[in-house]
Amino acid sequence: MDIEVTYHRANVRAGLLVILSAIATIVLASPSLAADPKPDAIIKNKNIEARVFLDDKIKADVPLAADCLAEGKKWLDKNAADAAASRKQDPQFFKDGGWEFERKYTIRSVVADRYVSLLRDDYMDTHGAHPNSDVNTVLWDRSENKRISIRPFFTETADNGATMKAMVKAVIASLKIEKKKRDSSETATEEWFKELKPSLLKIGAVTLAPSTETGKSSGLTFHYPPYAVGPYAEGQYVAFVPWETLKPYLTPEGVRIFGGARPKGDAEEQQ
Fold it and tell me: What share of the chain is helix, strand, coil (3-state, %, to 5)?
């Protein structure tokens, strides 16, 4: 009898070890159960919890990290002030807690070991019908340690000029393809694209797309938040314009940095 009891306990003990091991594996593998990353800046009070995150590659570049963090902190302060004012005016909207905001900076590409494209993704919950999101971009010149535009890569970028007209035409063509993939062709209309203008300030947030050729960019990707070029339910859109489409308008620096093709899977990663 004692032998049977000892054998039973040993089995129970072994079974518990298997269960505990499985639980540990799930905890380590699951992002929702693993420890959350620590924000690089945060404001937390009764009105709002707002956080800013920089990815590790940004943190490794001290000037770039400082630039993003300075911008992020201004964003935190503005939203904290807005939340405080809103609570004072309409306290009933805070009965279930304060607002929640989050901003994440991530590197999308590094071209010619000089030009760094970043995505700036925002999440906002102000207790409306649903949370909202936004996306913007940063193009950073490592040699100058400052933000730049894509102007140095094109011979001219005047509003309604040849370059911008070719660019916006290619953007809309790409968006129509993306909408077809999502079975959303009914919103691939001029009404939804009317805000896209042949102007650097009105065509959309742009990044240098990665390339199959090391150190090059395969073209431009334009990033649109919900509502920008489609209903909220369709989410974000990314339009891709291959560099060959814009080849007639490139400066010598543009010719130097563009080449190759868009890597397989990049389109899926950006959706």
Answer: 40, 25, 35
* HSE-up (13 A, CA, CB side) for residue 212: 8
| Contacts for 42 with CB less than 8 Å, ≥ 6 apart | 49, 50, 51, 52, 76
How far CA 85 is from CA of 42, 49, 90, 173, in Å, comes to: 19, 15, 9, 43
62: Cα within 13 Å, side-chain hemisphere: 0
pTM of the predicted model, to two decimals?
0.84
Please say whether the dihedral angle defined by the alpha carbons of residues 191, 192, 193 and 196, taken in this order, is positive or negative: positive
For tokens 């560099």, name the residue. Answer: 243
For residue range 107-127, what is the model confidence (pLDDT) as tens digits? 999 999 999 999 999 999 998
- Condensed to tens digits (0 to 9), the pLDDT of residues 160-200 reads 999 999 999 999 999 999 999 999 999 999 999 999 999 99
Residue entry with tokens 């035409």: 169
Can you name the residues that pair with 146 across neighbouring β-strands?
141
